[in-house]
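My hope is that you will study the record closing this message with an eye to the fold:
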Amino acid sequence: MTTTTVAKVLRSDYQKSVASYWNNEKDPVNLLLGDVDGLYHHHYGIGDYDRSVLEGPEDTRDGRIITEMHRLETAQAKILLDHFGDISPADRLLDAGCGRGGTSFMAHQRFGCQTDGVSISEQQVEFANDQARQRGVADKASFHFRNMLDTGFETGSCRGIWNNESTMYVDLFQLFAEFYRLLEYGGRYVCITGCYNDVTGGRSKAVSRIDEHYICNIHPRSDYFKALAANNLVPINVIDLTSQTIPYWELRAKSSVATGIEDPFLTAYREGSFHYLLIAADRV
């Protein structure tokens, strides 16, 4: 990318630091799990795990855990896509903060429509486009080095947009203003996100530790609904997935890919200072 292109996409020192983090990220928790079936996710999992993966031969135990963690991640992406309802092959979907493209490929496989992903990480975009070529779907699944706050795509060009654990890097009011512009009338926005509980009176110590680890800025739960309302995005479904994501973190803590952030997540979820929500909203 030229210096001019990078400057247009990365508009603040903070965005540059986030991009640098993900350009250099080669965390086994993302890569080893993606190696299971070629779907590389950058999010967490939901659902109970199979206790039998902890039994059996010790030398294959970690491989079983990795495979099971990946199953839970994919289950999370499936429930996100379930909330788009009927999408036709003629529609277009946008994956905002697409990572290495895992959910985008699942969306294209399910709906057969055009899927575009955007990321401020050049490394992620290159990886995802290479995956698209290997899968033979580069004409229908494309990834772009763009800023989700100003994508450059045409107004009203999207039937659906999602964020899968990427909203904590941006201002929600600016983000949803861009999504209102991009969505056609009646289009659907879906996100799965971690947010802190306003009732507890601010970020807990555990939530602050998560922010520090990922160089992010976790929003209060109320800000999502304020920003959606301000941009004519009307919630149709809100699901608390907190209890369903705890088993994933318990299993991850027992794996070779544990990073040390597992305890803050488990503490925050269990004490109620942090929630894991799915929000689906229609553009009116």
User: Anything to note?
Assistant: Residues 61-82 form the longest helix (22 residues). The longest strand covers residues 183-196. The chain has a mean pLDDT of 95.
